[in-house]
Amino acid sequence: MDAVDERPLIERRSVARAGLLETQARTVIERVPAWAGIPQRWGVSPYRGCVHACRGCGARGAHRRLGLDAGRDFDARIVVKANAAVRLERELVAWGGEELAVGVAGDCYQEAEARYRLMPAIVAAAGRAGVPLTVYTKSPLVVRDAGLLARAGVRVAVSIGFVDERIRREVEPGAVSAQARLELVAALAEAGVAVHVLMGPVLPLLSDGADQLEATVRRIAAAGAGGVWPVVLRLPAATRAGFTAWLAERHPGLVERYEQVYDRAGMPAAGYEARIVAQIGALAAACGMAPVGGVRQGKTEPGQLALI
Q1: What are the two backbone dihedrals, phi and then psi, of residue 83, each rounded to the nearest 5 degrees?
Q2: What is the DSSP string of 177-206?
Q3: First to last CA, the chain
Q4: Quick one: pLDDT at residue 296?
Q5: Which tens digits make up the pLDDT trace of 161-214?
Q6: pTM of the predicted model, to two decimals?
Q7: What letter would DSSP give residue 92?
Q8: DSSP structure string for 48-66
Q9: CA atoms of 178 and 300, how far apart (whole Å)
């Protein structure tokens, strides 16, 4: 009798290369779950998992559905959709032209992109189809494609939830500093890229103080961002477990208060979120930035991202 292959699903469907799991995706346009908090309804993620290791990343659950761990595996075992551009080109033939978000399930300019260079072909495919893109990233590698992104009219949203470096080291240990991301915003703006800041996640009771929000918005404006899109931390199940464990270790007095803020689906209380969004909006206006948007409505939609 042949031995049963007990490896995780993704390992059976991929080839390991230089520590990455390279696979051929069956589909690449995916519904964006409400936990992402962004305006686009559909997106493309050439990479699943992310070396930035952000504790509050809502995409962690997808790794669990692939048979991997939502914690360390998500941070280190990155899935590469090597055929992402080819699949996107085919799927856009019948696409209605609605804007796509790029990089929801893993930063599309993380280290793996330096090896695979999938983004230029993805941008080109969308350009040929006349489909607008918004790229979500916190990686300096995006500057490599600044000229291409500017010519293609691609919008870039750089994630900067706070400017307190102590918090960043704890909750975004693999990402570059907020200062480096502010410099990234400035470099993209100078290159003619339409760039704004995804100001998230705002962390309840950790980075939501009035002085903290003001400092963050002022530095974002000074960097040359066109606007801010505020997002309060979401905690879907796979993310909540790890974040709560970290909270219990580092800030045990906040665990019970977080239980009061978040519902069972991991969404923050509507009143609290509306207040934070309004504060950030007022601060942005005072700094001369046009509002990019606010809370995306809708319930959490687990399982909407394709398995591969």
Answers
A1: -100, 20
A2: PHHHHHHHHHHHHHTT-EEEEEEEEE-TTT
A3: 30
A4: 42
A5: 999 999 999 999 999 999 999 999 999 999 999 999 999 999 999 999 999 999
A6: 0.91
A7: G
A8: ES-TT--TT-GGGHHHHHT
A9: 28
